[in-house]
Specification:
3 domains, sodium transport, two-stranded antiparallel ribbon, ion transport, acid-sensing ion channel 1 fold, 8 helices, single chain, 215 residues, mainly alpha, transmembrane helix, sodium channel
Length: 215
């Protein structure tokens, strides 16, 4: 009796075959793949369909994950036709903030160190790096023996030594008509990045460099 009871307990604890689980599962097609039949064309086809579907699912998931990590974005633009266009302000950027040929001895005395041409002792900075013709001019203009400096104004310096639009504007056409440097008015302080506007009235610029920050 004890042996029979132990046998019944072992049968009770033994998990049900996968065929039983498949027959009771609501997962579509699993009952056709796990059956008691040994070989069956229907069973083989269901297994192929299941593996194929699983492969497609994995492929699509991997593709979407890769696409997500590319951080895609869409830019939408609205185009509006305007019969009359106001000419925008144009900024001319020149890495050479001033023309060396316009620099005077008084400029070197007051701003030579700021312009990286002289050191704190009014001596030529790194003369071995300066071209021979430029070095000769620097030596002449940096001779401050018995020199009496005049008042210096940074705004006047950039207005005088800054690049002129006539030297930078090669050609200009607006609405099919040719324009020239005379058609432009300065609307921002001259200096590192002068800003011009076609036909715009002159604008009063407050002291300081705040006007150039709004470009």
């Amino acid at each position: 009796m004890d042996l029979k009871a132990d046998s019944e307990d072992m049968d009770y604890k033994r998990p049900a075959p996968i065929e039983v689980f498949a027959s009771r599962s609501t997962l579509h097609g699993i009952s056709h793949m796990f059956t008691y039949e040994r070989m069956c064309i229907k069973r083989s086809l269901w297994i192929l369909f299941f593996l194929g579907s699983l492969g497609v699912l994995v492929m699509v998931c991997v593709d979407r994950v890769q696409f997500y990590f590319q951080y895609p974005h869409v830019t939408k633009l609205d185009e509006v036709a305007a019969p009359m266009m106001v000419f925008p302000s144009v900024t001319f950027c020149n890495l050479n903030s001033f023309r060396f040929s316009r620099v005077t001895r008084n400029d070197l005395y007051h701003a030579g160190e700021l312009l990286a041409l002289l050191n704190g002792r009014y001596e030529i900075r790194d003369p071995h790096l300066v071209e021979e013709n430029v070095l000769q001019i620097l030596k002449e203009r940096a001779d401050f023996d018995n020199y009496k400096p005049r008042p210096f104004n940074m705004r006047e310096f950039y207005d005088r030594t800054g690049h002129d639009i006539k030297d930078m504007l090669l050609s200009c056409y607006y609405r099919g008509m040719e324009c020239s440097a005379e058609d432009f008015k300065v609307v921002s302080p001259a200096g590192f990045y002068p800003q011009f506007s076609l036909g715009a009235p002159s604008v009063q610029i407050p002291p300081g460099w705040d006007g150039a920050k709004g470009l």
